[in-house]
Amino acid sequence: MNYKNQEETVVFSFEDYKKKVLKDYYTIVLSRETSVLGRREVLSGKGKFGIFGDGKELPQIAMNHFFENGDFRSGYYRDQ
After folding, report:
1. How many independent structural domains does the chain possess?
2. What is the rounded CA–CA span in Å between residue 30 and residue 57?
3. What is the pLDDT of residues 17-51, one digit of tens each?
4. From residue 26, how far is each of 9, 10, 20 by CA, in Å?
5. What is the reported pTM?
6. In this structure, how many other beta carbons lie within 10 angstroms of the beta carbon of residue 52?
7. How far is CA 26 from the centre of its chain?
8. CA distance linking residue 8 with residue 70, whole number of Å
């Protein structure tokens, strides 16, 4: 296997950083609110079954910034 041992330095402005953080925050909030809506449907009897992943979106967003092609993570829905 060949491993790259190079440091990449990416420089971007504070405005770009702020946009990236806000976009990530929006994705996390949207995911959690969707889980709440789904859980409400199941608990009210409208939905038969549901597996919700609220609480797992933050690590996934963080991994998204560091994963490269070929990296993978196989998660289990009951992992905490």
Report:
1. 1
2. 10
3. 999 999 999 999 999 999 899 899 999 999 888 87
4. 26, 23, 10
5. 0.70
6. 16
7. 11
8. 18
